[in-house]
């Protein structure tokens, strides 16, 4: 065999080996990619634990604080992965924001809301569901709060994995209730308070869905179904933007400004009315300018709702950071206070480093794991466009205002997802109504069979049932997990 032939065979073997190696490298990258996000999350949790060890190294019970900080970081990651999707999902589903843009805006405004407008004081007994005298012993109190923190984080993690948006606040409520029952029996629970919270499971999503459907009905009747859509949009879009500005000003005054000054519902409504009117007047010339030269079709109207929808998503994230992050890190703040001062209090101040854990953890969780739930809320329940997504955001703000006025403990998750269901079911009803109006004169062979109409449903029933089931079992599931963890912790230390 000639040297030339040997060289050719060698090159062919080398090419074949390199080709195999490239396949192996590609396969390795494919397998390793899913491990990147958990790896970064684990690094964040470890850094948080080390930072807590440095801050509280002088304490004799340093291990408890470090463990609480680690589980607090884990909780914050799960909030970012699950809860924040409700604010950004509609805007992404309507193509008003890219996934990257939504994650960036949510991370910034959630952190700003938590650090600038988050509560100074948080109720460690989670809205009064447990009698504080029943868990007055410091050691029992610490293990109860630790169990509540771990169970809420585990439940939210499981819900994210199965693709169900659940309430962070209700998960914490369930965790505190389960630990309280395990520590002091059923008598420790304030059952009237729990019945009010249970009522909110039904009231808040229904209210959010009805309000979102009413605004969509308004947009359809006053803009979309008009002969001159652009002229109708020039008249109504500034009014709708003014309502949005007023609603969010009231929402933020109630939920975000309490750190600076106490504001009652009447004052908040006055602030909202004033800012809403100013926004309406400013928006009139801007919408007229933007509407100039647009074609008389629905696609043109969507352009006018794009920017207001992005702004509403950012404001929802700020308000969520101001309100829900404090609730989520409440058990961590309670553990730190009890470990440092040796007393179990019903209300404690939130140290700035605890809020930083919440803010950064939410940002990491959203970036690493949030896209799954954002896609679920934004596009997999029902098809959203800027008008429908705008109705969802607007209903979320208005529902929280009404609930605050009525004194109902509501969940932003339930309201936002309820709004998505509301616009979807309204579209089904409206499509059916218009089909019946237009089919009266059609020959029988042109009419759509009832079975075909059912197949064309605009809300995915499988997702609907999964989410409702997750909502119903959130509190009892978190309570059972928490009770088991508390008993295990108590047994290990006794």
UniProtKB/TrEMBL annotation:
<keyword id="KW-0592">Phosphate transport</keyword>
<feature type="transmembrane region" description="Helical">
    <location>
        <begin position="92"/>
        <end position="117"/>
    </location>
</feature>
<feature type="transmembrane region" description="Helical">
    <location>
        <begin position="35"/>
        <end position="55"/>
    </location>
</feature>
<feature type="transmembrane region" description="Helical">
    <location>
        <begin position="464"/>
        <end position="489"/>
    </location>
</feature>
<keyword id="KW-0812">Transmembrane</keyword>
<feature type="transmembrane region" description="Helical">
    <location>
        <begin position="303"/>
        <end position="322"/>
    </location>
</feature>
<feature type="transmembrane region" description="Helical">
    <location>
        <begin position="236"/>
        <end position="254"/>
    </location>
</feature>
<feature type="transmembrane region" description="Helical">
    <location>
        <begin position="260"/>
        <end position="282"/>
    </location>
</feature>
<protein>
    <recommendedName>
        <fullName>Phosphate transporter</fullName>
    </recommendedName>
</protein>
<dbReference type="Pfam" id="PF01384">
    <property type="entry name" value="PHO4"/>
</dbReference>
<dbReference type="InterPro" id="IPR001204">
    <property type="entry name" value="Phos_transporter"/>
</dbReference>
<keyword id="KW-0813">Transport</keyword>
<feature type="transmembrane region" description="Helical">
    <location>
        <begin position="61"/>
        <end position="80"/>
    </location>
</feature>
<keyword id="KW-0472">Membrane</keyword>
<comment type="similarity">
    <text>Belongs to the inorganic phosphate transporter (PiT) (TC 2.A.20) family.</text>
</comment>
<dbReference type="GO" id="GO:0035435">
    <property type="term" value="P:phosphate ion transmembrane transport"/>
</dbReference>
<dbReference type="GO" id="GO:0005315">
    <property type="term" value="F:phosphate transmembrane transporter activity"/>
</dbReference>
<feature type="transmembrane region" description="Helical">
    <location>
        <begin position="412"/>
        <end position="429"/>
    </location>
</feature>
<dbReference type="GO" id="GO:0016020">
    <property type="term" value="C:membrane"/>
</dbReference>
<feature type="transmembrane region" description="Helical">
    <location>
        <begin position="140"/>
        <end position="160"/>
    </location>
</feature>
<feature type="transmembrane region" description="Helical">
    <location>
        <begin position="389"/>
        <end position="406"/>
    </location>
</feature>
<keyword id="KW-1133">Transmembrane helix</keyword>
<feature type="transmembrane region" description="Helical">
    <location>
        <begin position="172"/>
        <end position="191"/>
    </location>
</feature>
<feature type="transmembrane region" description="Helical">
    <location>
        <begin position="350"/>
        <end position="369"/>
    </location>
</feature>
<feature type="transmembrane region" description="Helical">
    <location>
        <begin position="197"/>
        <end position="216"/>
    </location>
</feature>
